[in-house]
Amino acid sequence: MMLDSIKNRRSIRRFKAQEVDGKLVKEIIEAGTWAPSGLNNQPWKFVIIRSPAIKDQLAVLTRYGKIIQQAPLCIAVFLDTAATYDRTKDIQAIGACIQNMLLAIHALGLGGVWLGEILKNSEKVRHLLGISSALELMAVIALGYPDEQTVASPRKKLDEVIVKEV
Amino acid sequence: MMLDSIKNRRSIRRFKAQEVDGKLVKEIIEAGTWAPSGLNNQPWKFVIIRSPAIKDQLAVLTRYGKIIQQAPLCIAVFLDTAATYDRTKDIQAIGACIQNMLLAIHALGLGGVWLGEILKNSEKVRHLLGISSALELMAVIALGYPDEQTVASPRKKLDEVIVKEV
């Protein structure tokens, strides 16, 4: 069941106009916060973005702007540099947090996509959202009710990624 | 169901002697490979470690060596630097991959723990395992059948991690 959900999750880039209830948004973020982190430092912070005006301004900061504009909702995920202790491990924890959120989005019948290209403009995003310089943009997740069927992107075979067994 | 699994997953540090079937190990690694990655570059590689002699040598490289020795199995996760395109995004992808593995471990009735402290000796681990310098150690996951009940480590409240809604 869990394994199927992990395999069947897809990136969704087209959304219906239907809004996403705030209760679901909190469930998604809560799922993110159940990720493990080094020394349980929980180095994540979130900004929920629904304003069409803000989405329009975000959209010009990435080549995937149309996805942001079309999504009823985005969640920006930040690394809280005040909570960090080791950059590699903290960024891994952020990745684990985002994956939990994507799995929760899928489990709730929603769809979402992890947008990273916008990190090239992370400072502009921070200014636009009026966020402290202690927070570093890690990703934007666009989500909503899916309006497309997608197929899995291919994966390397297991014997390509398992180097050896000792 | 998925959300419960995300919440109920715990770090397990004590294991029964029972071996973990190779088929389950492949399911766990396969779950890892279903994580998303930037440009679908899949920058992960894995080494399966069952040899007691190797585990003993790994154990001296971390203060959590007893967990490694007691676990019937460890999986070392590496970043394939030949496949990288952006260090932050690649490390996030590794984190997503590890989280999928931990969720799969939990879903299969096994338990595991994400060990990061050993990264202080990542080069020694690489030499011990006889791994190419193109691979960079990202974590060791110790796993097996759980021999303990654990409680959740506390989480910050949602209103502490949601900075704002715009």
Name the pair of protein chains with the most residues at their interface, and give those residue counts. Answer: A-B, 69 and 69 residues
Largest sheet of chain A: 4 strands, antiparallel
**Average of per-residue pLDDT values of chain A:** 96
Number of domains of chain A: 1
Q: Gap between N and C termini of chain A, in Å?
A: 30 Å
The CATH topology of chain A is what?
A: NADH Oxidase
Total DSSP helices of chain A = 7
Structural class of chain A: alpha+beta
Strand order of the largest sheet of chain A: 1-2-4-3
Please report which band the strand proportion of chain A falls in: under 5%, 5-15%, 15-25%, 25-35%, 35-45% or over 45%. 15-25%
What is the subunit arrangement here?
homodimer
Stretches of chain A where pLDDT is under 50 for at least 5 consecutive residues are: none
Secondary structure: helix percent of chain A: 25-40%
CATH architect. name of chain A: 3-Layer(aba) Sandwich
Give the overall shape of chain A, derived from the CA principal axes: globular
Instruction: Spell out the CATH superfamily of chain A.
Output: NADH Oxidase
What would you report as the Rg of chain A, rounded to the nearest angstrom? 16 Å
Total strands of chain A: the figure is 5
